[in-house]
C-alpha cells in the first residue's frame, strides 16, 4: 500500500537524497533492482524508517518509479518524489523530506543501503551497513571551479574538495564523493572519489 503525499508543509524542514550507482546498468528503473535504505534515527541499532523505490501503482501498472518512505512498523509508505533514474543506467537518486523519516538537518543517524532482486527472488543481493551521517555536517563538500554545477561540453574545470569543520565526527562514514553524470555511456556515468584528509 502506498500514499502519494501532496502536503507542501514539509518544505521548511528540507529533504535528503540517497544516490546509488550499481556495477551494471539496469534496463529499466523498476526491475530487477529495488533499493532499500533502513534509517536508524536514534542510533540504537534498530531501524525506525525505511526508504524504498518501486513501480508506482504496483507491478506492470505504470512504468513509473517512485520513492517512498515508511515507519518500519507500517506496511505502507508515503511518496513525494519520482526516483531520479533513467533507462539503461546504473544510477538512481532517492529523495524524501527529512520530516517524513523523523529527521532534521542537524540529526545524526545511521543507515544501511540494500539492493534487492525485486523481479526473480526477492533476495538482498548487495548491502552497505551501518553508515553514519549528519545532513547539515557532511565530512567533505565539493565547491569552486564548477560554478553552479554545470560544465560546457568538451571542457574542464577544477573541482575543489573541502573538509567540513566537525564533519569527521558528524559524518564519519563519508570517505569521499560519488559523482553521477547524466547522458554518459554505460560504465562511465559515475565516479567514486576517495578523499584522504
Number of strands: 14
In which order are the strands of the major sheet placed?
1-6-5-4-3-9-10
Q: List low-confidence stretches.
A: 1-10
User: Helix count?
Assistant: 1
Overall geometry: globular
Class inferred from helices and paired strands? mainly beta
What's the Cα radius of gyration?
Answer: 17 Å
Strand content: over 45%
Largest sheet, in brief, is:
7 strands, mixed
The helix-strand sequence is EEEEEEEEEEEEHEE
Mean pLDDT, all residues: 88
Which percent range fits the helix content?
Answer: under 10%
Distance between the termini: 45 Å
What report would you give on this structure?
The protein has 197 residues and is an all-beta fold. The chain is 2% helix and 46% strand. The chain contains 1 helix and 14 strands. It has one helix at 167-170, and strands spanning 2-4, 15-26, 33-40, 49-55, 65-71, 77-82, 84-85, 89-97, 109-117, 124-133, 140-143, 160-163, 176-180, 190-194. The strands form 4 sheets. Strands 1-6-5-4-3-9-10 form a 7-stranded mixed β-sheet, with no helix packed on it. A hairpin with an 8-residue loop joins strand 3 (33-40) and strand 4 (49-55).
Concise overview:
The protein is mainly beta. The chain has one helix at about 165-170; strands at about 1-5, 15-25, 35-40, 50-55, 65-70, 75-80, 85, 90-95, 110-115, 125-135, 140-145, 160-165, 175-180, 190-195.
Question: Which terms would index this structure?
Answer:
197 residues; mainly beta; 7-stranded mixed beta sheet; 3-stranded antiparallel beta sheet; 2% helix; 46% strand
Amino acid at each position: 500500500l502506498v500514499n502519494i503525499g501532496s502536503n507542501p508543509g514539509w518544505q521548511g524542514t528540507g529533504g535528503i537524497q540517497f544516490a546509488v550507482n550499481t556495477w551494471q546498468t539496469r534496463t529499466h528503473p523498476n526491475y530487477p533492482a529495488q533499493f532499500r535504505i533502513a534509517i536508524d534515527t536514534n542510533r540504537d541499532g534498530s531501524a525506525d524508517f525505511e526508504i524504498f523505490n518501486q513501480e508506482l501503482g504496483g507491478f506492470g501498472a505504470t512504468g513509473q518509479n517512485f520513492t517512498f518512505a515508511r515507519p518500519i512498523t507500517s506496511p505502507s509508505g508515503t511518496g513525494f518524489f519520482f526516483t531520479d533514474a533513467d533507462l539503461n543506467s546504473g544510477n538512481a537518486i532517492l529523495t524524501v523530506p527529512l520530516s517524513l523519516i523523523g529527521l532534521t538537518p542537524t540529526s545524526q543517524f545511521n543507515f544501511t543501503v540494500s539492493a534487492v532482486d525485486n523481479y526473480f527472488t526477492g533476495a538482498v543481493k548487495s548491502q552497505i551497513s551501518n553508515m553514519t551521517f549528519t545532513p547539515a555536517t557532511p565530512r567533505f563538500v565539493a565547491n569552486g571551479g564548477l560554478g553552479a554545477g554545470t560544465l560546457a561540453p568538451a571542457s574542464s574545470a577544477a573541482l575543489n574538495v573541502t573538509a567540513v569543520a566537525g564533519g569527521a565526527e558528524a559524518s564519519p562514514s563519508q570517505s569521499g564523493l560519488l559523482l553521477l553524470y547524466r547522458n554518459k555511456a554505460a560504465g562511465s556515468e559515475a565516479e567514486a572519489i576517495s578523499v584522504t584528509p
